[in-house]
Structure formats: structure tokens, C-alpha cells
Amino acid sequence: MNAEKILQAARLLADARHVACLTGAGVSAESGIATFRDAQTGHWSRFDPQALASQAGFAADPGLVWRWYMDRLESARERAEPNAGHVALAEIAARVPRFTLITQNVDDLHERAGSTNVHHLHGSIGRFRCNECEREHVLRAEERRAEMPPQCAVCGGLVRPDVVWFGEMLPRGPIEAAWEAATECDVMLVVGTSGIVYPAAQLPYLASENGATVIDVNPEIGALADITDLFLQGPSGEVLPRLVQALSALHKE
Ligand code: BV8
Ligand code: ZN
Asked: Among the atoms of ligand 1, which is closest to the Cα of residue 30?
């Protein structure tokens, strides 16, 4: 990653009134959480995440889906720590007038790194609700180890994680905040997403159509290449801290 491009990106951030940031599974990769693109770790590698993260998958085998989420919850909550990329995003937010963080991730690593007001387009793996009546369910310790999902205390429906499955609508609040930020921002900073899943992947396009500059941080060139103005190739845990350093240096000038 050459210093010139980092400096160019830092100047864009320094001149921005409003930076919108869209993150995907890649920002949590260096925390040890497998992305959807990578084969899921261990015995999950023989399952297709898109099949498991769906009503059909849950109906077909609620126990399998429950165990998949309990394993992911354990790795996100017990084993994973925020990495330098998560921390850098919280530091950039403190250095620009307005910063809107929108994530496709269901882990809480942005919050644990100090980011506030994080918009979770696809929900959170640490929250649970009834698949039928949608009542919130507070998970008990023994339910984390159970082979089957718990049943709703009120209607008897199966309890599921409060995440957005494929084919399900995204929550209105986060969508409205994300759409407003994408249309209003000067810079759209995209970090660690393949840009494949809609409607989240629409946001960089929306920002670009509304005159924002799109910066993409990713080790690989992806689906957003055609609207990316500045591509910072590399892992977010390395690129973002360098961006913070360059931004801080500009502020000292
Ligand atoms: C909806 C929560 C309709 C669950 C998730 C055909 C064409 C277009 C669209 C569709 C289609 N068929 C179906 C659809 C719609 C579908 C969709 O987009 N499908 C895709 C696969 C084609 N979308 C939906 O179903 C959405 N709902 O459309 O509803 C509707 C409309 C009206 C009324 C009713 C219904 C719901 C989508 C949300 C699904 N839920 N997550 C859970 O987590 O279990 S999506 C899930 O996958 C993640 O949240 C994430 O969003 C997505 C994976 O994407 P990424 O985050 O980008 O991760 P990925 O692994 O793909 O990429 C990782 C990237 O990181 C890579 O680029 C890699 O290079 C990079 N990377 C790796 N290491 C690093 C790094 N980057 C930086 N640093 C590193 N170190
Ligand atoms: Zn219920």
C-alpha cells in the first residue's frame, strides 16, 4: 500500500463534513471471525451459510442452525477481540465532523472498539427473538449449550437470533439512517465487504450517485471496483491505522 494513496485518502477525510462508513465481514477477519466468503471454519465448512441463514434452513433443521449460531456467538463474544481496524474507525470518527458507521456484521466488535451509534443492517448475533411472535428472548446459559433452540415462553414458537436472514427485510431504523448517510455524505469509506449482498451493497452506489468520493479498503478488488474512486489494497487492520496516522499528521500541519 503506497504512502501517496494513504495521504490522498487522509486528505479526503480531512476535507469531509460527513463521512459514511460501510463495513463487512472483512473488518472482523483479523479478529479471527471467518467471513462468509471464506469457507466457514471447521465442520461448518461443508454447509452453505446462505442456506443456514434463512427461514427455510431453520425450518429444515432448527437444531443445526441453532448450533451454528451458538458457535458463532461463542467465537464472537468469548474468543474475538476488536482488531486495529475496528479501533482505527473509532479514531477516524473522533477526527471528522460527522461519521456514520453502518455495518453488515452481526458481531459487536465495533462497539467494543469504542464506536458509538453503530447501525446494524443485518441485526446482532447477541440478541434473540421468537421466530413467530417476535418477542425478545433473553438467552439463558444452558440454552447456549442446547442442541435445539428454546421455545418462546408466550407462544411456543422457536427462538432465533435477531439477525436478518436471506429473504428477510432489513430493519427500518438502520436502513433509514444508512440511506440518509449515503445520500448526504462527502466520503463513503467501504471496509471489508465483497459488495455482493443487497440491499447493503447499494449504499456505495447511492453515495457515488450523490457526489460522494468512494474509498474501498480490501485485500482484493471486488464488486464495487467500478464506482471506487480510491482503492486502498490491503487488510483493514494494517491500512486503517496508517490512515489515522496520516489524518493526525494533516491536523498538526
Ligand atoms: C432481501 C446476517 C428481500 C445473517 C446476512 C439475486 C441477486 C441479487 C440479490 C439477491 C438475489 N437473490 C436474493 C437476493 C437478495 C439477497 C442477496 O443479496 N443475495 C446475494 C447473496 C446475491 N439479499 C437478501 O436476501 C436480503 N433481504 O433482499 O429481502 C425482501 C424484499 C422485500 C420484502 C421481503 C424481502 C437480506 C440480506 C442479509 C442476509 N444476512 N447476515 C448472519 O450473519 O448469519 S448477510 C451476510 O453475508 C453478512 O452480514 C454480510 O452482509 C454478507 C457477507 O458479505 P460481506 O460482509 O461482504 O462478507 P464477505 O464474506 O462477502 O466478504 C468479505 C470481504 O472481506 C471480502 O471482500 C474480502 O476480500 C474482505 N476481506 C477479507 N479479509 C479482510 C478483508 N477486508 C479487509 N481486511 C481484511 N483483513
Ligand atoms: Zn413467540
From this structure: 80
